[in-house]
Design a protein that fits this description.
The complex is a heterodimer. Chain A is built from eleven helices and no strands. Chain A is mainly alpha-helical. Chain A has a single domain, classed as Urease accessory protein UreF, CATH 1.10.4190. Chain A starts with a helix and ends in an 8-residue tail after the last helix. Chain B is about 40% helix and about 15% strand. Chain B has nine helices and seven strands. A seven-stranded parallel β-sheet of chain B has the order 3-2-4-1-5-6-7, with helices on both faces. Chain B starts with 18 loop residues before the first strand and ends in a 6-residue tail after the last helix. The chains are: A mainly alpha, B alpha/beta. The interface between A and B is large, with 40 and 33 residues. Guanosine-5'-triphosphate binds next to helix 1 of chain B.
């Protein structure tokens, strides 16, 4: 395992994740989540739907990034400031011509959109993706992150996560594992804060989920490799899963309308 | 929620951007009142933006918008997930995003004020988010607060002790507060205010405009 994965999966990564509850705040408000067992059911459902989807998309993004060779960011010392609005030269990541609509990042981002039904979920995903991208560009500067920022400034979170993991040196399967963990660790922490649950009991719960995390990441990675059969072949998007969790979608929409809330999502 | 559709992640050295001023301090000490006063006093001469960090509503942002001290679109609210101090100190991403969104939409700005959600005496701003920070106490918290210290009281670039109009009512001794603050703060300034009596917060506004001038001299955009 690449140690950089620890940094990417750490809830202390300063990328704004602490302000997202993944639907838990609304589930707590409705009474559906009220103790450790009900939290466990919520997390299991989330991991095997939204989490499994995010893991597959993250792995796909990492695989796509690995088709683009990493090069260090342009030297910034001389100019004093780096004009980040200036686009780096386009990479040859399968894009034909200079049209951004043809960029593989725009295409993959569209695939994530198509698999994220609720507008509130899309918004939350893009917000987290944008913040993660910003942090990753400073922590692991690379041309593929710059290219992503240029073509999709507000990428979905799984895309930012997959590319950041790649830039940090992690494999696509490791990226999928980070995504699966992210799908439950943030909501678990939010529940601790909202309900005053025993943090040790909640961590024991997370520990009990580790075999599921491994399984979800492996399946996700398998789907992603089927979608990218070979670097020179066009991606087979239909190989990527499209799980949905209507309850999470509803919670997200209700949350976006709520007058009183502590978490962004 | 800053939907930025351009790549404007800034270089971290601060050149060519506005001074970022953090306003922190315990719940109810008068942070929003101070931000409103600064907008009132500095708004006519400086280009401003405001970011609020509310705990569970957008109350502060709504108050400022209603007060009409600044264009409503120049005020953005950030949600902090139960942890107001995390959002200004440990994970500043959402606040930075909001600040940069304002600069991108309305820039160039002279000053962006970030009000933290009212928290405890240990909450201070990361230097990655705020270039200068004001910590606001009020006299009704008791005249012992400066003596207790804490990073906000001790290290803020300016300590404001607000609601001096209430001092006789709560039996707070301003002399004691001034002496204790000086003891823990050394040369760092302390100002006593009553925003109730002076809604322009003139003394604080003077300090802020001086900081803005100093910032713009040292961080001007290089001539290209
Ligand atoms: N008497 C008196 N009241 C004041 C003064 N300044 C503010 N207030 C009042 O104190 C209350 C709290 O002020 P805010 O500005 O909302 O305080 P805050 O620090 O922003 O509060 P939070 O954001 O909730 O932490 C309001 O009712 C203000 O009108 C003052 O100088 N004197
Ligand atoms: Mg306030």
């Amino acid at each position: 395992m690449n140690p950089a994965l620890l940094l990417i999966a750490d809830s202390r990564l300063p990328a704004g994740g602490h302000a997202h509850s993944g639907g838990v705040e609304r589930a707590v408000a409705s009474g559906a989540v009220h103790d450790v067992p009900s939290l466990s059911r919520f997390l299991r459902g989330r991991l095997h739907t939204a989490g499994a989807l995010a893991a597959a998309l993250t792995s796909a993004a990492a695989l796509q990034a690995s088709c683009t060779p990493i090069s260090p960011a342009p030297d910034t010392t001389e100019a004093g400031t780096r004009d980040v609005t200036e686009a780096p030269p386009a990479t040859e990541g399968g894009a034909e011509g200079g049209d951004d609509r043809e960029s593989p990042w725009v295409r993959l981002d569209d695939e994530v959109d198509a698999r994220t039904a609720a507008p509130a979920q899309r918004e939350a995903s893009r917000t987290q993706g944008r913040l993660l991208l910003r942090v990753a560009r400073r922590v692991w500067p690379s041309s593929v992150l710059d290219e992503l920022a240029r073509t999709v400034p507000d990428p979905h979170h799984p895309i930012a996560l997959g590319v950041a993991a790649h830039a940090a040196g992690a494999t696509p399967e490791e990226a999928a594992l980070a995504a699966a963990y992210h799908a439950i660790s943030g909501p678990a922490t939010a529940a601790v804060r909202l309900l005053g649950l025993d943090p040790v009991a909640v961590h024991a719960l997370l520990a009990a989920f580790t075999p599921d995390l491994t399984a979800v990441a492996a399946q996700a990675h398998f789907a992603a490799t089927s979608a990218y059969p070979a670097p020179h072949l066009a991606p087979r998007w239909e190989a990527l899963p499209a799980y949905s969790a209507p309850a999470l979608d509803l919670l997200a929409e209700q949350h976006a309308q709520a007058e009183i809330r502590l978490f962004v999502s | 929620m800053g939907a930025n559709h351009d790549d404007h992640h800034h270089a971290p050295d601060g050149r060519g951007r506005a001074l970022r001023l953090g306003v922190g301090g315990p719940v109810g000490s008068g942070k929003t009142a101070l931000v409103a006063a600064l907008c009132r006093t500095l708004g006519p001469s400086l280009s401003l933006g405001v970011v609020t960090n509310d705990i569970y509503t957008t109350e502060d942002a709504d108050f400022l918008r209603r007060a009409g001290v600044l264009d409503a679109e120049r005020i953005l609210a950030v949600e902090t997930g139960c942890c107001p101090h995390t959002a200004i100190r440990d994970d500043i991403a959402a606040n930075l995003d909001a600040v940069e969104t304002l600069e991108h939409r309305f820039g160039p700005l002279d000053l962006v004020i970030v009000e933290s959600g009212g928290d405890n005496l240990t909450a201070t701003f990361s230097r990655g988010l705020a270039d200068e920070q004001i910590f606001v106490l009020d006299v009704s918290g008791g005249d012992k607060v400066p003596r207790k210290g804490g990073p906000g009281v001790t290290t803020a670039d300016l300590l404001v002790v607000n609601k001096t109009d209430l001092a006789p009512m709560v039996g707070a001794d301003l002399g004691v507060m001034a002496r204790d603050a000086a003891k823990v703060r050394g040369q760092r300034p302390v100002l006593f205010t009553s925003i109730r009596q002076d809604p322009t917060a003139a003394t604080v506004a003077d300090w802020v405009s001086e900081r803005v001038m100093a910032w713009s001299h040292t961080h001007a955009t290089p001539v290209s």
